[in-house]
Amino acid sequence: MNFPGIRMPDTVSHIHDTNRPLRVAYIVRTVDVVNAKAERLHLRLDAEQRALLEAASEATGSSLSAFVLRSATDAAAGVLADRRAFLLDEQDWRAFDEALERPAQDVSGLRELLTQPTVLDARDQA
């Protein structure tokens, strides 16, 4: 059986003090075919920061750009996950669920506030 990116070697014997033949699979690094990236992000950093990033990228076998992009997007996803997912104990969950089940209420002045132009709208018209 063949799988993309996985190389199956010949049978290997005497692994972990056993005489039974074992088949060992290991993953071969593959290059994903992706659309060319059109956006750029320029960063300013000092020599110490660059050296740290270069050392980490070398340790992971990545290019500096790939390492920084992957690290930054992972960090961004973590920041956003903290704002989308949260844990509640049973009591807090019941209170939260009850609040969601209550009918919507008009908040005095909110509808008017949301329908009036803002300072940002005024700038767009200029």
UniProtKB/TrEMBL annotation:
InterPro entries: Ribbon_hlx_hlx, TacA_1-like. The keyword Metal-binding does not apply. Gene3D superfamilies: Single helix bin. Transmembrane segments: none annotated. One of its GO terms (biological process) is regulation of DNA-templated transcription. GO terms for molecular function: DNA binding. Keywords: DNA-binding, Repressor, Toxin-antitoxin system, Transcription, Transcription regulation. It comes from the Bacteria. Belongs to the TacA antitoxin family. PANTHER family: COPG FAMILY HELIX-TURN-HELIX PROTEIN-RELATED-RELATED (PTHR35401), CYTOPLASMIC PROTEIN (PTHR35401:SF1). This is Uncharacterized protein (DUF1778 family). It comes from Krasilnikovia cinnamomea.
